[in-house]
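Batch manifest line 275
LIGAND: NAP
JOB: complex structure
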Amino acid sequence: MTAPILETPHLRIPRIGLGTWTLRGAEAQQAVEGALAHGYRHIDTAAMYGNEEAVGAGIAVSGLRRGDIFVTTKVWWTELAPDALRASAEASLKRLGLRQADLVLVHWPAPGMDLPATLGALDRLRRDGLARAVGVSNFPAGLLEHAIALGIGPLAALQVEAHVYLWQDRLAALCRRHGLALTAYAPVAKAKVNDDPVMRAIAAKYDASPVQVALAWLMAQDGVVAIPKSGRPEGQRENLAAASIRLDAEDLAAIAALPKDRRLVNPDFAPDWAA
Ligand SMILES: NC(=O)c1ccc[n+]([C@@H]2O[C@H](COP(=O)([O-])OP(=O)(O)OC[C@H]3O[C@@H](n4cnc5c(N)ncnc54)[C@H](OP(=O)(O)O)[C@@H]3O)[C@@H](O)[C@H]2O)c1
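JOB STATUS: finished
ARTIFACT:
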């Protein structure tokens, strides 16, 4: 089984990818190997995760052609000055053992960052072939709008926290209007959905798990990609299979009625989310 592909003006990206945050060393390599063997074709990592070598090793032993796997990595927010950004991306590629990433993202905006300079350096990665496409992560709507308005090369994706308990219409609309894929991180709300009676009742109808229903709800949104993390083969299989679940209108409405302001990832360096 492989995930359906989202096609945008700038990307062809599998709609379910493997998140790798917290996976390290041999565990990360095995998770990537197992996921690729099972049909995953999209892996999400970051310089900050400390697992790029292991992710790269998992890709290398998969035997798959490079062009068949979509790999995202990210540049940490302390490295956004142009020279530092370039050095970070080059170091990521070296650790991954790749000549080019499919997508390089600014991981978080930095307070007081020189946005045009950072976006210029990001776009140079694309023009110089280190990244097929570039984008940003954790940008609130106002900052994303500003970044798009600067017009410094195409932004192909926005990666933000999004799940049945957190959804931002303004961000989603901006992404749709400007052709960015919206990649949902923490898409199964870190498995909290498994304890939710609404999600459990819907899951029972489809002979599925609440985690699968959470992913199916994201798949029902236009232009959305999800990167659930599971280190377990059964979890990975379950998450990929969720792409084939079609929720009916009643279930979509019941999930839409759940609170949509529950943010799970909010470190002290996070931006003002209302900005
Ligand atoms: N851009 C950013 O700033 C940012 C921030 C956070 C995350 N991310 C990316 O997004 C990815 C996903 O986010 P996340 O890892 O925070 O949260 P998540 O994918 O919503 O949840 C991961 C948790 O859910 C469990 N889980 C996953 N599938 C399951 C299943 N089918 N049944 C039961 N439990 C399941 C996992 O445990 P098991 O491993 O035991 O299955 C893990 O504890 C990250 O790995 C990372 O790649 C990006």
